[in-house]
Design brief:
- Helices cover 35% and strands 21% of the residues.
- A hairpin with a 6-residue loop joins strand 13 and strand 14.
- Helix 3 runs parallel beside helix 6, helix 4 packs parallel to helix 6 and helix 6 runs parallel beside helix 14.
- The relative contact order is 0.16.
Length: 513
């Protein structure tokens, strides 16, 4: 079912600078200056990046060690007697939204818990290896979390941080909050009961909470291709990847593809990709997959078909991504090498022709025209499934929770609350799990136009937690504006800072266990 790995890869080719030169004529000076900040090529900066990322990795390992010890201790206590563990708030998912909720809970002495189905806090960023979208500028940061002690800029000197560094920041926020994380624990169902919620895990254990916050991000990796045979193949290969995460499969999501590349790189292995690669989707996931492909020594005959992208030339693509300069440096060389073809339209059908070879039917909704192409490998970047739908009783529906943000007076959507049998129940979705919360008008006035960015979602989560528990919004709410960018801190100073903040929160709160 999958391609064998071979020891022939040249991961991160430093000669990529030559590829950059080949498209230099297409970029103006402003673009070139930004690209150097996004993906530096000089050896001194590359060595600094490696050093900073290794430092973040060691900090992350320390934090995860603490989370694992706490999780093990709590599991033992729950096994002995789970009846006395009734919580004010339980968060599902250990990403940035639940870390922010934990900080608010800690500041207000709530008995809270985070439940994470995997072995990693902030797994969505920690497992992969890519540059995050929003830049860390001198006077502004898109990654500020109210109550956070550690800034992302203290982990990296670069304009665009790595996914690992963002994961480390999220882990640091969770650590400082003192709210424990129950790792390797998956929630099977949520049942409203006498004003509370009963959470049942897949192992049969259960917990009770006054409020449940679903902060699972975009949700479960899935596909939106409307063809059952392909969907089944997608599920099978995605499950196989969970057990063999250093392998390349013929069908992969962007998430699993990035995880495999990171693991292959860490093990100093090589990878052989087939000639004809099809990327489905025109969002950030597709672009990040293309960036990943630029890190691999591809066969000179490799062809990449990008379904959903109708830009046929490098010039057209550059015009289309004004303001998103970081995508240009890794994608334009694919155009310049003649290996990238944009295919306008949506996938209607995918059929298996023989071993690891697929026929893909695409329809252009505007013209009504259809076309077919053949691919040896599919990278599917079409979407995710809402996790809550599988946890709640049939018939539950989402309603908007309206309130105010600290940074604005007009009311807005803070999150979603579930209704069951015509009654609102204390189950809420925050961040990307709740969908697009900001209106188009709101987004047009904000610095980051991405509705599910940290900048746009975390303030809503903080405001929602404050609203449903009757707290005042944190006075230290920070919109991300700063007078200057902070210096990068060494590991010793970061750990000292985090331990002191954690101890301060612990002294201010009662023992939540």
């Amino acid at each position: 079912m999958y391609f064998s790995l071979v020891i022939s890869l040249l991961f991160f080719d430093f000669a990529f600078a030559e590829n950059q030169k080949s498209c230099a004529g297409l970029l103006n000076t402003k673009h070139e200056a930004r690209l150097i900040e996004a993906f530096p090529t000089d050896q001194a900066t590359l060595q600094k990046i490696i050093k900073e990322e290794k430092s973040s990795q060691r900090i992350s390992e320390f934090l995860m060690k603490s989370f694992r010890e706490e999780s093990l201790k709590l599991k033992q206590q729950l096994k002995a007697d789970d009846s006395k563990f009734v919580y004010d708030m339980i968060c599902i998912g250990s990403g940035v939204q639940c870390a922010a909720a934990s900080l608010v809970a800690s500041q207000n002495n709530l008995k809270a818990l985070v439940i994470e189905k995997s072995h990693l806090v902030a797994r969505n960023f920690a497992e992969k290896d890519f540059k995050i979208n929003s830049a860390e500028n001198r006077t502004f940061s898109m990654h500020v979390v109210p109550g956070s002690v550690l800034q992302l800029a203290e982990l990296t000197s670069q304009k665009y941080a790595s996914s690992l560094q963002l994961a480390t920041k999220i882990q640091a926020d969770q650590y400082v909050s003192n709210i424990p994380v129950l790792l390797d624990t998956e929630v099977r169902s949520l049942v409203p009961y006498e004003g509370n919620v009963i959470l049942t895990m897949t192992d049969g254990s259960s917990l009770k909470s006054r409020k449940v916050i679903i902060g699972t991000g975009l949700g479960k990796v899935s596909t939106k291709v409307p063809f059952s045979e392909y969907k089944n193949q997608f599920i099978l290969t995605h499950q196989a990847h969970q057990n063999q995460s250093n392998q390349i499969f013929p069908i992969m999501s962007t998430d699993s593809f990035l995880v495999s590349l990171k693991n292959i790189k860490a093990q100093n292995l090589g990878v052989h990709l087939p000639r004809d690669i099809v990327i489905i989707g025109n969002g950030d996931g597709a672009r990040i997959a293309l960036e990943g492909l630029s890190e691999i020594a591809l066969n000179p005959e490799t062809r990449i078909f990008w379904v959903g992208n109708h830009f046929k030339t490098a010039d057209e693509y550059i015009q289309s991504v004004a303001g998103w300069d970081r995508y240009i440096q890794k994608i334009i060389p694919h155009y310049e090498a003649g290996r990238l073809t944009g295919v306008d339209g949506r996938v209607e059908e995918i059929k298996s022709l023989d071993v690891n070879r697929y026929q893909i039917k695409i329809k252009n909704s505007q013209t009504g025209m259809t076309q077919s192409l053949i691919g040896d490998m599919i990278i599917d970047s079409t979407g995710y499934e809402n996790v809550a739908q599988s946890l709640l009783p049939v018939g539950a529906r989402r309603l908007d929770v309206i309130g105010n943000l600290a940074a604005q007076t007009a009311e807005t959507v803070l999150g979603r609350q579930y209704e069951f049998n015509h009654l609102r129940v204390p189950i809420y979705e925050v961040g990307a799990a709740g969908g697009s919360l900001a209106t188009e008008t709101e987004l047009s006035l904000l610095r980051n136009k991405n509705a599910i960015s940290i900048y746009n979602t975390v303030p809503r989560t903080v405001a929602l937690i404050s609203k449903i528990f009757g707290f005042n919004l944190p006075k230290e709410f920070d919109t991300g504006i700063r007078s200057e960018r902070p210096d990068v801190l060494n590991e010793e100073n970061i750990m000292k800072k985090l331990k002191e903040a954690r101890e301060k929160n612990r002294n201010q709160a009662t023992d939540i266990l």
